[in-house]
Amino acid sequence: MQVSHTSKQYPASMKCRYTSYSTMTSMLKTINSKIFSKTHSLETKFISLETKTTALEAKTTAMETKITPLETKFILLEAKTTALETKTTALETGTTALESKIVSMETKPSTMEAKTVALESKTTALGRKITAHGNKFVAPLPMLQYSLLQFNFSLLKTNNMDNHDTNRVNMIRTTHDFCVANGAATAAIPAYAPIVTAIKGKLLLIDSLDIIALGTTTGVTLDTNALRIAMSGLAFKCATAAFAYANSVDNNTLAAQVKFTRSQFDSFKKEEVDDICQGIHDVVNANAAVVTPYGITPVDITDLQTATDLYRASIQAPRQARITISNSKDQIKGIISDVSQNLLKNQLDRMTDTLKSSNQPYYDQYYQAREILDLGSTTGKIRGTVSANAGNALDGVIFSVFKTGTPDLVAKVFSSGGGKFNASNLSSDDYDLVWEFATFQTVRENNVHLAAGKELKRVITMLPV
Questions:
Q1: pTM beyond 0.90
Q2: Most buried of 56, 102, 326, 399 (most Cβ within 10 A)?
Q3: Which among 222, 322, 238, 240 has a CA at the least distance from the CA of 288?
């Protein structure tokens, strides 16, 4: 028997559902595939990031390793810097102590001179007492200057000036030394000390020009440091006056040319400080007519040029302006005149007058020092310089003056300040001169005549034994 098969018929709604399920299944497979693909991609990226992170961490570790020794070095450098600063402070302290010792040593001669002044005053008072009692001796005249010269022949440093100028220099030097030795008496007058310091600078210029006036600088050492201080002080004074004027008229160009602090002059190199001072001189000199009312005089400007020339001579600068013997004598005369009139008569004398009622002894001794004693009309001088054959100046050489043909010693002095010697207050007579120094051959000059009021100059070269 044959069975007939007929196709099974499904409802239309079931067919639709089946189709939707197939479609969804296919879609889910597709989505699942995409999710798997993205997940795999993300895992790959994550692995890559982990690799990079590991590399960065390795680099960071390497950097930290390098930084650690650098930090150690930095700490060591800081420690070294601190140690250097400590050493610098210690050196500065030591320098200050040395400077104090130097100042103390410099004041000792002034103290001795003050004691000499006191002894001379007692001698004068004793002489007057003798006169009062009818003794045949006459009370000595005030001899403050004379006593100082007897104890320190180096106080007299004059060239071939006439007796009048020579005596004025002696008076200026004696007055200065008296003021220095008795500084406490004028401490309440602030303007007093700067004038005394200015006089010291002027005397330095006179002494330096005096070396030029000898006619040779062979074997003679100009005091370079002292000349630098004097030159810098004058330059600063002139620059300050010019700066004040420039500001008053709003001249910025001039102000810029002369704007300097005092400490700058100390820091300038040895080879440049004279050029800077020369530049200040030239600027101020060109504006002298308008600058001088601001605290300087024409003599200050001239002295600045003189100090600059002398400083250049002391360092043997090739640009040195030649100072002739004639010029040196003329400049000395100008400086003497300025000190006598401007610094002493117009300023220091007036300030000393204010002490007459409060400090009569100082007042009397000051004017005693200010007296110009004529030491050159009846006496003579022998001065000059002494050096080794190599050209270096010799300090400490014994210079002895004997009456000719006898062992009678008339004077004995020592060379100092660049080999300079000076035997003063010698009577007119014939003398034998002797220069002696250890390890050098003795130099003699016999039967030398010294006339009253005259001066003999000698430039001595000593040979080693």
A1: no
A2: 399
A3: 238
